Amino acid sequence: MGGKVEPLPPGGKKAVKVKALAAADAARQKDAARAAERAKQREQLERQKAERIKQKEMQKIKAEEERKQQQRELEEARKRKEEEATQRRRALEAAEKREREEKARRLEELRAKRRLEDQRRKEAEAKQHADEERKRKAAKLVEQQEVEHKRARVQEKQQSAAAQPAVAVQNLVHSTVAAAASSAAGSAPTASVLAAVSALEAKARLQPAGSSFNAAMESRADSGKGPSTSSGPPPFPTAAAMSKALGARPLPGLAAAASKPLVAAAATPTTQLVPPGTQSYEISPYKSDEGSESEEEDEEPSKPVPEWARGRQLLAQLVSQLAVDPDEIFQQHAKTCSLDEVFGSLERERPGKKDLSRRTSSSNWIEDRVTWKEEMNYKKAMGYL
Q1: Nearest one of 110, 233, 108, 236 to 173, comparing CA atoms
Q2: CB under 8 Å to 232, separation ≥6 — which residues?
Q3: DSSP state at residue 75
Q4: For residues 308 and 365, what is the distance between their CA atoms, to the nearest angstrom?
Q5: pLDDT computed for residue 377 by the predictor
Q6: pLDDT tens digits for 175-191?
Q7: How far apart are CA 266 and CA 350, in angstroms?
Q8: Number of other CB atoms surrounding residue 143 within 10 Å
Q9: In terms of pLDDT, which residue wins out, 292 or 81?
């Protein structure tokens, strides 16, 4: 503006300055200055805009880098977590394996100990049984010898008793019959006579079978005709012979007295032995009370309960299951679930949520489970081992 030099007019003459031209020139110079100022301001604004755009791009790039860094950190954290979960799972599997091996070893030791005890008990029982059998045979031999001695003594007594004559008994019978015949004289015999005859008959029956007295009676009964020609004492008279001698009238009560023991024995009823403490009662049928059905409809379940799950049947089932080891039925039972597998999908779906698997300070789930020692103590207490 101030340093611009205008060219000289042609001819070398100095231009005549006019006041209006000077004013126009000054106005043009001001417009040029304002235009230059506006261009400068516009350039400055564009430069500031470019800087702001660049800063935004830099911030965007920085945010992207930070996001990628966070993703890398999350991925590394996830990998570390998976590695820790894998290590915990391996540690748990190793602990379970050691526990199973220890439990199997203890069970094998207990089974071997039990087999040894059973073998010793069987040997002791066999030895005791052999001793008892030997003692029983010895006692049986002694008893047989005693029976043989008693039988020999009884035979000796029978032989000595058979050798003695039965004359006194026969004379007493004949004298009694004669007295009864002479005193009766047409009347019925008295009860004393009948009792005496019955007593004598019973005494005669009790004589030894091998004696000469019974042999004479049997020969007399078999013959049934005429007197005997033997020189011995007269035979023992029977009830029929006595009644015939007493006037050919039957003795009332004599035959009944002779057969009375047999009739009494036949008439005696056999008694049934009932064990003490038994109770007999009538069981009412199921749902027999018609009046109470309407009252019990509300209380009865919709599904009927089977017979084996009620009352004594259920008690019998429970008692029968006391000696059954649950491990023999459920051999492959899971002791606990893997919490890493349960909560792993939730953590991947919701990465911003809290880690639910770390619910304890150590995340050691083995400490919360039942140990093999506790299982062995339980088996011993229940009688499974």
Answers
A1: 236
A2: 212, 216
A3: H
A4: 40
A5: 87
A6: 655 655 555 444 444 45
A7: 100
A8: 10
A9: 81
Gyration radius (Cα) of the chain, Å? 67
CA 205, distance to chain mean position in Å, is 66
Domain range summary for the chain, segments of one domain joined by +: 166-223+234-261
Instruction: Kindly state the tokens that stand for 310.
Output: 């009620």
Q: pTM of the full predicted structure?
A: 0.27
Structure tokens at 198: 């019955």
For 186, phi and psi rounded to 5 degrees? 105, -10
Q: What tokens appear for 87 in the block?
A: 């290590």
**What per-residue confidence (pLDDT) applies to 296?**
53
Q: What DSSP line would sit under 321-353, residue for residue?
A: TTT--HHHHS-S--S---HHHHHHHHHHH-TTS
- Residue 16 neighbours by CB under 8 Å, 6+ apart: none
355 closest CA partner among 77, 142, 51: 77
Count the residues in the chain: 385
Q: Is the pLDDT of residue 9 over 50?
A: yes
**233 vs 316: CA distance, rounded Å:** 79
CA distance 175 to 94: 114
CB-neighbour burial class of residue 231 (10 A; exposed 0-12, middle 13-18, buried 19+)? exposed
156 vs 148: CA distance, rounded Å: 12
Contact (Cβ atoms closer than 8 angstroms) between residue 22 and residue 28? no
CA distance 211 to 156: 12
Mean pLDDT over residues 271-279, rounded? 44
- Residue 21 — pLDDT band, cuts 50, 70, 90? confident
How far is residue 266's CA from residue 55's CA, in Å, rounded to a whole number?
A: 133
On whether the CB atoms of residues 176 and 200 are closer than 8 A, the answer is yes
Judged by DSSP in three states, 382 sits in helix
Contact of 103 with 375, CB cutoff 8 Å: yes
Burial class (CB in 10 A: 0-12, 13-18, 19+), 312: exposed
- CB proximity list for 327: less than 8 A, separation 6 or greater: 333
**In whole angstroms, how far apart are CA 177 and each of 202, 230, 238, 258, 259?**
16, 22, 11, 17, 20
What phi and psi values does residue 113 have, to the nearest 5 degrees? -65, -40
Structure confidence at residue 57 as a pLDDT band (50, 70, 90): very high
Q: Where are the alpha helices (DSSP H) in the chain?
A: 19-163, 167-184, 191-205, 212-223, 239-245, 254-267, 293-296, 311-320, 326-329, 339-349, 372-382
